[in-house]
């Protein structure tokens, strides 16, 4: 049986926390500070190259216009190592790293990384993705045009820089992370990629549990509005997503933009894939990425830390030391240069455990948990919570709630919830005794004498009886202290449709994956309700929804444990 290797995180100083908090705030507002209107016409295909004359021993930097196959021009930055920089082959060619900019960002996003890469002996080409800022075209959301652009940028770099065609990699954040994985699927010249805060499955990100993730979609649309030009297709898909209209078409659109759809291509290319993500990513949940990771068969590494979308990588954009980017650089060094040390098979998965910050390394994802605990759900009373796994409750029970009403338990606010967990160890919090039992079913365990180590995705099984044919349930798992204050460990939605009103049906809900050590003396609490501001639920307001258990089909919470 594989065992993990645990290390301790160094304590963060107040200055680091303040800097991180400032950067997180900037993430939320920075996209609205665009200086070029989204409706502005694309810049001319040719512009003078502005070259910063490099001093001896310093990398050079220049701006470039890169024409792609359909005539669109992408704005780019090119960083070239100074002559004599180690890393060149016998012909003076350096490994190439292509960096697509993030959603709503431009080619200047990675200036700090480009300089660092060039100083380390890489040609770095960062470009503004089509449809954003002064790049031409319209936003394609990692569609066929975006994928074709990746190959065009590589072609241009091979023709206009001393780049080695045998040593090509990609690095990207957010949209750039999704594009690096799509590039790995469609261009076999790419040998290694590092995708940070990206997606493996865009459908699961926007529509997990058959539930529309509207708050995240609205934020992405708000970031795009001042910085990019929507294509008609993207505009239609976004409108349909918000309206809950023609969802099979939206799913097909998202599937074509999901690296998971093309994982066999990535495996056939044997591309070395590095993935970094945050437990609380409110745009692209961690479960969609771990599912994608498990399907990869080539060289691969996964790192998961507390945080929200792109908050783990933010400090690096200012050129500050950053563990995520440091790992990405090591990955490139290893697979493009043959240096940088070997991550090794026992380090293919690295988890930063919440809330204590311990690091654990595993040989593969299956090794993170070694056993499961099955906690039987008893009958919740109107004032007192039933016991998880309690034997006092009758084998058959039902608990009714008023549907479509918010109990106060929720997944938090997109971009903010995971960031607060990263900076202040403060995920979405509730006072459990104050949750209205008319809107939520609540269960609590007895206090744990020793800390259980939750690793993976907890699952809930119950019977549901609803007054309407369509509905949604939201599950929340909390860490509850002696005062009844519950901190969110994980959550997820699950919807249903076409059920016969008044007839019970089984429902299975898989919470988003996590790594969490419950402190000794604390309780676990499970909450089920039918409304969450982060999502578009289907349960009609005021309708009745009952959760229940039968002798033949008991309700239970299943916990994967280390």
From TrEMBL:
Specify the Xaa-Pro dipeptidyl-peptidase C-terminal domain's residue ranges: 329-556
> What keywords are annotated for this sequence in UniProt?
Hydrolase, Signal
**Any signal peptide, and if so, which residues?**
1-40
Q: Which Gene3D superfamilies match?
A: alpha/beta hydrolase (3.40.50.1820), Galactose-binding domain-like (2.60.120.260)
Kindly name one Pfam family recorded for this protein: PepX_C
Entry's family note: Belongs to the AB hydrolase superfamily.
Q: What is this protein called?
A: Acetylxylan esterase
State the organism of origin: Streptomyces siderophoricus
The taxonomy runs: Bacteria, Bacillati, Actinomycetota, Actinomycetes, Kitasatosporales
């Amino acid at each position: 049986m594989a065992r993990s290797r645990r290390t301790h995180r160094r304590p963060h100083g107040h200055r680091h926390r303040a800097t991180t908090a400032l950067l997180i705030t900037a993430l939320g507002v920075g996209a609205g500070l665009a200086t070029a209107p989204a409706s502005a016409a694309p810049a001319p295909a040719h512009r003078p190259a502005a070259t910063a004359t490099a001093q001896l021993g310093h990398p050079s930097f220049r701006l470039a216009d890169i024409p792609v196959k359909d005539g669109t021009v992408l704005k780019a930055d090119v960083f070239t190592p100074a002559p004599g920089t180690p890393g060149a082959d016998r012909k003076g060619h350096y490994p190439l790293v292509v960096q697509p900019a993030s959603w709503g960002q431009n080619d200047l996003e990675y200036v700090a990384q480009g300089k660092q890469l060039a100083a380390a002996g890489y040609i770095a080409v960062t470009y503004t993705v089509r449809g954003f800022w002064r790049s031409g075209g319209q936003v394609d959301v990692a569609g066929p045009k975006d994928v074709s652009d990746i190959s065009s940028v590589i072609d241009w770099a091979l023709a206009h820089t001393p780049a080695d065609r045998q040593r090509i990699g990609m690095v990207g954040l957010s949209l750039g992370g999704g594009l690096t994985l799509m590039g790995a699927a469609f261009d076999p010249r790419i040998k290694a990629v590092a995708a940070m805060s990206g997606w493996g499955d865009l459908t699961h990100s926007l529509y997990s549990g058959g539930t529309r993730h509207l708050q995240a979609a609205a934020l992405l649309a708000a970031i795009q509005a001042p910085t990019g030009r929507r294509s008609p297709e993207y505009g239609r898909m976004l409108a349909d997503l918000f309206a809950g209209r023609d969802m099979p078409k939206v799913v097909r659109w998202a599937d074509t933009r999901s690296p998971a759809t093309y994982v066999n291509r990535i495996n056939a290319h044997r591309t070395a894939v590095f993935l970094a993500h945050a437990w609380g990513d409110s745009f692209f949940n961690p479960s969609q990425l771990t599912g994608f990771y498990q399907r990869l068969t080539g060289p691969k590494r996964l790192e998961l830390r507390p945080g929200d979308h792109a908050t783990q990588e933010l400090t690096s954009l200012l050129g500050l030391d950053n563990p995520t980017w440091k790992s990405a650089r090591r990955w490139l060094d290893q697979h493009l240069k043959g240096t940088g040390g070997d991550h090794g098979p026992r380090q293919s998965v690295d988890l930063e455990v919440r809330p204590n910050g311990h690091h654990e390394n595993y040989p593969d994802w299956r090794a993170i948990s070694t056993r499961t605990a099955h906690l039987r759900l008893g009958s919740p009373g109107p004032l007192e919570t039933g016991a998880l796994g309690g034997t006092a409750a009758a084998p058959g029970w039902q608990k009714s709630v008023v549907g479509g009403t918010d109990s106060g338990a929720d997944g938090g606010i997109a971009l903010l919830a995971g960031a607060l967990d990263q900076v202040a160890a403060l995920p979405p919090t509730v006072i459990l005794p104050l949750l209205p039992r008319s809107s939520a079913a609540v269960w609590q365990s007895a206090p744990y004498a020793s800390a259980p180590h939750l690793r993976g995705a907890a699952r809930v099984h119950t019977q549901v009886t609803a007054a309407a044919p369509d509905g949604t349930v939201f599950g929340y798992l909390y860490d509850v202290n002696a005062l009844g204050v519950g901190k969110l460990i994980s959550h997820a939605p699950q919807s249903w449709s076409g059920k016969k009103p008044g007839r019970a049906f089984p429902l299975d809900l898989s919470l988003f994956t996590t790594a969490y050590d419950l402190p000794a003396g604390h309780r676990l609490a499970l909450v089920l309700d039918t409304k969450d501001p982060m999502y578009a639920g289907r349960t009609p307001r005021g309708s009745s929804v009952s959760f229940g258990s039968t002798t033949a089909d008991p309700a239970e919470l299943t916990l994967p444990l280390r």
